[in-house]
Structures are given as structure tokens and as C-alpha cells.
UniProtKB/TrEMBL annotation:
Cofactor(s) required for function per UniProt: Mn(2+)
Keyword Hydrolase among UniProt keywords: yes
InterPro entries named in the record: Amidohydrolase (IPR017439), Bact_exopeptidase_dim_dom (IPR036264), Peptidase_M20 (IPR002933), Peptidase_M20_dimer (IPR011650)
Cofactor note: The Mn(2+) ion enhances activity.
Peptidase M20 dimerisation domain location: 177-273
Species: Spirosoma telluris
Entry binding sites for Mn(2+): 95, 97, 130, 156, 351
Keywords on record: Hydrolase, Manganese, Metal-binding
Protein known as: Amidohydrolase
Any GO molecular function: hydrolase activity
PANTHER family: CLAN MH, FAMILY M20, PEPTIDASE T-LIKE METALLOPEPTIDASE (PTHR11014:SF169), PEPTIDASE M20 FAMILY MEMBER (PTHR11014)
UniProt xrefs under Pfam families: M20_dimer, Peptidase_M20
């Protein structure tokens, strides 16, 4: 049964119209399940709470391959006005996960047309990539624990690269990313007598100024380290009160886990010094951790060979991308690779409010897999 590829474009547009943020992909899961059931997988299981796992092939002899797509959207208000624009206020698919899901659905249809003769292939529709929680939830799911893949693969669309160009590299493909939350607890006082309290404002400012000298934002450097201010708050709009509490959130990015550990240690040392000098209690906590995608050398070679065999343009990137991707957790456990596919040189960037996935990738993506 050869299907009209427009069916998958329509499916992508449906997902785009009804986006759901990380961990809340309940209707998305239902839509995907209803759509892919027509491709008769050997088994179809719910994993990671709001994800889906499809199995093709039943042979216990031969390789076990995992291919993953993410399905969650972002808390971004869409500004596009095309027919398939988001119908959900303040939520939209601004990273192209709707397109990734359509690619995996198309792959399911191809596997249904040409059954797996040796080994097994598992297709994973993974939730909660944007928060870094989805891969962990799947890996900890007893259903997934039975699989033990020999290889794991994933792709991500890449604005700024020519449409359909395959981009990959051995080793680190995406960065290690860690979000750091820092609280500064001093003591409130009358704003006319700030000396009788401990206002954290200058300590917070000093910390942010020091991060400018600690970071090495050049992505081509082995010591690459990016510290991005994300959010800050302090005190309240009560003009007779000198603030006694403040908070800073920053995101840290490095090439690998070792460099991340060194950067984190350096920042904690600065905070300890500032606390001792000021008397302000400083505490840290972490959220949304992404380990670097470490592409296996042989898996990278497979991606390159497949792309060239199909006649696709291929680019071997020299340095990792600066963004994080929780597929890195899979490559920590199994040999595998993530690769990119060009979304168009004029495409708005990922996470921009006018971004949209390029539907012409729905065919080359599955072909490469």
C-alpha cells in the first residue's frame, strides 16, 4: 500500500494546530496513536507517560535499532497566520517536533510496506524533550527496559542549512546544557536605613559581571562555555522597603560533561566568595539538564553513508551545536547518532515565534533512516 505523501503533511499540520507543552502531550499521544495504528506495528505501547513506542519486526536474531522523534511544543505565542497556525493560545511548535513526528510516522508506513526481515526496529515518539525530562522518563519505563537497542538514531531540523542537507559529526554533536538557579537571602530593612539590612542587589550584580569574564562563548574553542542570563527577581514594588531576597537563573552550555563540571565548580567558587564577603546566604539548585549527544564513530559513518548513497548533500560539522537535546541521554546508554537535516537557509531560527517546519523534509528524513 503506497500512500500519498500529502497524508503526512496533513498529519503534521494537525499536530501543529493542537500543540501541547512538555509532559502534557495527552491529546498529541492520542492523535499519533490513531494515525500510526493504520501502519500495523507488531506492538504499540505507551511509554514515558505521554510517549509511544512502535515495534516492527519480530526476529530475535539480528540488530535492534531505535529511532526516536520528539513530540512536545513550546510556550510561545505563534505569529504566523497560515491555515495550520496553532489554535492553542500561547503554545506552538517552534522547534519542529511536529515535523519530526510526521517523519517518524512516514517511516512507520515504509516499514509496513517493506517488513523488517532481520532483527527489530523500534520507533519512539518521545515526550518532554524541551525540559530534558522525556528521555529520562522513557529510559526508566519498564516497557522500554525490555528493548536494549544495539543502535539509536534521531534527527533534528536545522534552520540556516540548505533544505534537505544532512549534517552530522562524530563525537559531541550537541552541547551539555544545565540551568542554574541561585538564591540570595539577606535581610529586609527600611529603604531609608539600608545599612540595617542586607540587600542582595550589589552581590547579584557582581556575580553577573563576573560571569562575563568566566565564559568563553566561541563555539569553535575546546574551552567553549556560555553563561546566559535567563531570569532575575528581587524584592517587591514597595518603595519603603530595602530588598532582602533575590534570585538569578542562568543557563550554562559547554562542549561536554567534563567542561560543564569545571564551569560549575568555578561558578560555585565565585558564589562562595561573594557570600563570605557580603554575609548574604547563597544557595544553588539545578534544573533542565541535557547531556551532550556523543555520536558513535560507526553510527556517524552509517549516517554519512546513507546520505551519500541517497544523493543528499552532506556536511560534516566541525564543532557541536550550542543547543542541548535530551537524546544525549540515549547516546550515553547506547551507541548511536543524532544528525541534522536542513530546514532552509531562509528559515526563521528554532524557538522564534515565526518559525515553521519545512514540509519538504517529510520524505528525505525517513529515507535516510
Amino acid at each position: 500500500m503506497t500512500l500519498d505523501t500529502s497524508l503526512f503533511t496533513q498529519f503534521r499540520h494537525e499536530l501543529h494546530q493542537f500543540p501541547e507543552v512538555s509532559g502534557q502531550e495527552i491529546e498529541t499521544q492520542k492523535r499519533i496513536k490513531a494515525f500510526v495504528s493504520q501502519f500495523k506495528p507488531v506492538a504499540l505501547s505507551e511509554v514515558g507517560k505521554t510517549g509511544l513506542l512502535l515495534q516492527y519486526g519480530e526476529n530475535t536474531e539480528g540488530p535492534v535499532t531505535l529511532i526516536r522523534a520528539d513530540i512536545d511544543a513550546l510556550p510561545i505565542q505563534e505569529v504566523n497566520t497560515f491555515a495550520h497556525q496553532s489554535k492553542i493560545e500561547g503554545v506552538s511548535h517552534k522547534c519542529g517536533h511536529d515535523g519530526h513526528a510526521a517523519i517518524l510516522a512516514r517511516l512507520a508506513s515504509l516499514l509496513a510496506e517493506k517488513p523488517v526481515a532481520k532483527g527489530r526496529v523500534y520507533l519512539l515518539f518521545q515526550p518532554a524533550e524541551e525540559t530534558g525530562k522525556g528521555a529520562e522518563a522513557v529510559l526508566n519505563d519498564p516497557v522500554f527496559a525490555e528493548i536494549k537497542p544495539d543502535r539509536a538514531f534521531a534527527l533534528h531540523n536545522l534552520p540556516g542549512f540548505p533544505t534537505g542537507t544532512i549534517v552530522c559529526k562524530p563525537g559531541s554533536f550537541t552541547s551539555s546544557v544545565l540551568s542554574l538557579i541561585i538564591t540570595f537571602r539577606g535581610k529586609v530593612s527600611h529603604s531609608a536605613e539600608p545599612e540595617k539590612g542586607l540587600n542582595p542587589a550589589y552581590v547579584m550584580a557582581e556575580f553577573m559581571l563576573r560571569t562575563q569574564h568566566i565564559q568563553h562563548p566561541d563555539p569553535q574553542s575546546d574551552t567553549f562555555a556560555l553563561i546566559t542570563p535567563i531570569y532575575t527577581t528581587m524584592g517587591a514594588t514597595s518603595y519603603g522597603v530595602s530588598a532582602g531576597y533575590g534570585e538569578i537563573h542562568v543557563t550554562l552550555r559547554t562542549r561536554n560533561a567534563k567542561r560543564m563540571d569545571a564551569l560549575n565548580t568555578q561558578l560555585l567558587s565565585v558564589l562562595s566568595e561573594l557570600s563570605a564577603e557580603s554575609g548574604i546566604a547563597i544557595q544553588t539548585s539545578y534544573t533542565e539538564a541535557f547531556v551532550a549527544n556523543e555520536n558513535d564513530t560507526e553510527a556517524f559513518a552509517q549516517v554519512k553513508q546513507s546520505a551519500l548513497k541517497l544523493g543528499y548533500a552532506f556536511v560534516e560539522k566541525q564543532e557541536p551545536f550550542k543547543w542541548g537535546e535530551d537524546f544525549g541521554l540515549f547516546t550515553q546508554h547506547y551507541p548511536g547518532a543524532m544528525f541534522g537535516i536542513g530546514n532552509g537557509e531562509d528559515s526563521p531560527a528554532l524557538h522564534n515565534d515565526d518559525y515553521d517546519f519545512n514540509d519538504s523534509l517529510i520524505e528525505p528524513g525517513p529515507s535516510c533512516f
